[in-house]
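User: Write out your own:

AI:
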Amino acid sequence: MKKIITPLIFFLLWIGSVKPQSIEDPFDYFPLHVGDVWTYQLIDYDYFNDDTLSISYRTSVITGDTVLSDRNKYFAFQEGGSHFYYRIDSSNFMVINNGHGEYYLQATPDSIWTDEYGMINYISVDTSVVVGLGIIKPKIIYLEGYGIFNRTLAKGLGLVYSEEGDLGLHLRKYLVYAKINGKEYGTPVGVEKNFPKVTSFKLLQNYPNPFGEVTPSGNSETTIKYSVSNVGIPHMRNKLSLHLVVYDILGRKVATLVNKAQAPGNYSVNFNAKNLPSGVYFYSLRAGKYFETKKMILVR
């Protein structure tokens, strides 16, 4: 019996002595060199309606370093018209933003960290593709507030993704270009032609129009054609949520013909108005900021 229990006790004691591994090379997850550059694609997103509302780009540059009032050296970031000052406290591996702890780099995977603002962050670690750059990197993921505010740092790159917002509108931020200590990742976006925004959609006149039993077509069905442009959002697989809706002359919705994400291409959809009275109707295509409406006539 002793020969069975003793190894078991030893094994349990050994397991109890094993501590979770901390993140390897934590400083690498927040690079700080004068001249480092990060360009992000910003997406304003309607969470409830699954809509991309707008797309823009913003670049952050480390312009130099300076000593602030707490007598510590910070690196100066310029992003648009805003300025930020960051340093890493080597005693506790905390990334400090203007005197406040913003990231904890020495956390163990699957741990909990309560920041200086009292917000609870769930920290996880994985190795996967950096969306927007398409390269595989180890990452630290901070989830706060049920995912309404979350951030991801990638090894050697720093901040590669963030999302913040309320219960409706979110701002998503994807890294699409970086220059870290002289090494470049991705493609510079000096002009947005490299990553085009939604540029053009096309909503065609329905055919036949007018339509209905007394028209040459002899039925209550008509076809609506439309074209979806290349939306230029690689990490969204070039899809954008589209809504094609029919309204009566009083503005009441009578039919939803399309309500889903679609890739670039040409599409058509049939509208059957057999249960509707004669009159003027309108159909509208909405995709992000694009919105167009056309009129059609139903004749009984």
About this structure: The helical segments are 2-17.
